[in-house]
């Protein structure tokens, strides 16, 4: 798995287009197996540590798979605890990315609580930029995006081309439902963020995440009332 050849951006784009067609209806494990065989250690999983489902799936086909986590400095303690538990018990290599500025440094330059005044700028500095840098060593990355999470994710391809980063973007559970996730968690004893049992349906940074109400979609608790539904990583 570690000797997979490197690919040029043109080759990566072609691989993404072909696999996007061929793997659209494939089981998640088959999608990840293709990614592992094609990219080897130049393939990683990104995780918000809401749960470890995709990391678990990937570790079954690529033991020691890199799992990239963005530590924004604003996470709930439960999220950091989930990250640490994943690193301790799973056959993965957790890689924690941090922003260039600490929260204190950002406050000094931009004023406190930038997340309340300009969440797009805060996300750009604390999530988008660190991920750009962290993904440089990889040709392909996997996400836990699902089409049923929100209208903005309804067209998520199982395998697609990430033009902005010029990488293959794999969403092996794009076609899964919440019930599929819950079943997998129970069947395989997968680690989940304790906040999911405390009214949160989607877990992000503490200042920008609230519990969801009955009937709301899973991401309704993210940047609630701020006219924002994505951090910018998946746009
Ligand atoms: S989710 Fe909120 S706190 Fe986290 S980086 Fe984005 S704006 Fe900042």
TrEMBL record:
Tagged with keyword Protein biosynthesis: no
Annotated Pfam families: PAPS_reduct
Alphabetized UniProt keyword annotations: Cytoplasm, Iron, Iron-sulfur, Metal-binding, Oxidoreductase
Root EC class: oxidoreductase
UniProt catalytic activity: [thioredoxin]-disulfide + sulfite + AMP + 2 H(+) = adenosine 5'-phosphosulfate + [thioredoxin]-dithiol
Full protein name: Adenosine 5'-phosphosulfate reductase
Catalytic residues, chain numbering: 231
Known cofactor(s): [4Fe-4S] cluster
Task of the protein: Catalyzes the formation of sulfite from adenosine 5'-phosphosulfate (APS) using thioredoxin as an electron donor.
Lineage, uppermost ranks: Bacteria, Bacillati, Actinomycetota, Actinomycetes, Kitasatosporales
EC number: 1.8.4.10
Domain Phosphoadenosine phosphosulphate reductase: 48-210
UniProt feature coiled coil, ranges: none
Family membership: Belongs to the PAPS reductase family. CysH subfamily.
Cofactor, free-text remark: Binds 1 [4Fe-4S] cluster per subunit.
Annotated residues for binding of [4Fe-4S] cluster: 122-123, 205, 208
